[in-house]
Amino acid sequence: MLEKINELKAQIEGLTASNAADVEALRIKYLSKKGEVSLLFNDFRNVPADQKKAMGQALNELKNLANDKINALRDAVESVDTVGEGLDLSRTESPIRLGSRHPLSLVRNEIVSIFARLGFSIADGPEIEDDWHVFSSMNFPADHPARDMQDTFFIQRNPADVLLRTHTSSVQSRVMEKTQPPIRIICPGRVYRNEAISARAHCFFHQVEALYVDKKVSFVDLKQTLLYFAQEMFGPATQIRLRPSYFPFTEPSAEMDISCNLCGGKGCSFCKHTGWVEILGCGMVDPNVLEACGIDSKEYGGFALGMGIERITNLKYQVKDLRMFSENDVRFLEEFQSAH
Ligand code: DAH
Q: Which of 120, 217, 282 most suits a substitution to test ligand 1, by most atoms within 8 Å of the C-beta?
C-alpha cells in the first residue's frame, strides 16, 4: 500500500491542466468518491493494526497533497480563463463619461440658429470645387492674387481647374444658378488655403456665408441684419461699425467690427487697445455676380456676408492657438462640456 501511496504522490506532483475542464477531470480522477485517493482510504481497513498509524498519516498527507495541487491548478487556469471568457472587454468603463461638442460646432450651430430666426435656411456646396464657382462667377479678375498657387490648393490645372474652395462664397453661385429669388441662405463649411500652419493661421478653417437676394434689398437691410446678429451672438450691449472695404463679389463692400466684448470697448490687448475687433466681411452683391449666375440684376439685388468661425470662437472662448481646434486633445475638448 505504501508503494501505491508513493506512486500516486509522484503522479499528483507532476499534474498539469490548461483549463477548468482539465482540473475538474483530475479532481474526479483522484478525489471523487471512486477516485484513486478515496479508494485507498477504502483499503485502509485491511491494513494490519501495527501499521495503521503510519499508513493513516501517509494517506492523509496524500489526500492533502491532492487537494492542494488541484486547488492550485484551478486558481492558475481561472486567472487565465477570465481574460478571455469571464470578462466582457467591450463593456464601457463605468461610470460612462459624457463627451462634449467641439467648440467650432457649438459656435457654428449658434450662428446658424440666429440666422434661422431671420428666415435663412442652410445651403451646402462641395469642398472640392472648380474655378467657376470659387472665382469666375464671383467676379474675380483673371489675374487676381487669390487665384495664385500660393493661396489656393489646386488638385488639377488643365484642362479645367479643380481646387479646394478658399471660401464659402462659392456656395452663393451654386445656389443662385439653381434657384431664382427670393433667396435667403446660410452656408457653414470648411475652406482651405495654402498657408503655413501657426498659432494664427491654418491651411484649413471654417466659414459661414450668408446671402439674401430679392427685390428692393438695401444696405439698410444688411446693416440691421448685422446688428441683430452681433447682439444675439455677443450680447445686447454690443455695438457695430462698418468700414469701407473691397471684395470682388460685393459693391459697395464693408468690414464689420464689433465693440470688443473682452474689455467692453475700453481697450485691451485683444482689441489692440482700439475697443473694436473685426469679425466679418459683407456688402451688396455685385450685379456681375447676379448676372453670371442667371439672375436679372435690374430686377433683383442682394446682400452677402462671410465670417470665419474660428475667429468668432476665439472671441467667445479666448482660444489662443488655432491649432488647438484640430489636434483632438481631449483636455481641450472637455473644457466645453458644459456649453451647449
Ligand atoms: N469670402 C470672403 C473671405 O473669404 C468673406 C466675405 C466677404 C464673404 C464679403 C462675403 C462678403 O459674402 O460679402 O474672406
A: 282
Cβ neighbors of 208 (< 8 A, separation 6 or more) are: 108, 111, 112, 168, 186, 187, 188, 189, 306, 307, 309
| Close Cβ partners of 57 (under 8 Å, ≥ 6 residues apart) | none
331 Cα–ligand 1 center, Å: 33
For the chain, where are the alpha helices, taking DSSP H only? 2-13, 20-31, 36-43, 52-81, 103-116, 131-134, 170-176, 219-234, 287-292, 309-317, 330-334
Cβ of 187 below 6 Å from ligand 1: no
- For residues 218 and 136, membership in a common domain is answered with yes
Angle at 172 between CA 169 and CA 173, to 5 degrees: 110
Cα(340) to ligand 1 centroid in Å equals: 28
For 205, the enclosing helix (H) or strand (E) is strand 204-214
* Residue range(s) defining the domain that contains residue 319: 103-339
Q: Is the CB of 170 under 6 A from ligand 1?
A: no
- Residue 283 domain-assigned? yes
Q: Is residue 232 part of a domain?
A: yes
Residues 34 and 127 both lie in one domain: no
Give pLDDT tens digits for 26-68.
889 988 888 888 888 888 888 888 888 888 888 889 889 989 9
For CA atoms 138, 139, 145, 150, the dihedral sign is positive
* 247, 250, 256, 284, best to mutate for ligand 1 pocket (most atoms within 8 Å of CB): 247
What is the CATH number for 250?
Answer: 3.30.930.10
Please write the tens of the pLDDT for every residue from 263-318. Answer: 888 888 888 999 999 999 999 999 999 999 999 999 999 999 999 999 999 988 88
Chain segment 213-250, per-residue pLDDT in tens:
999 999 999 999 999 999 999 999 999 999 999 999 99
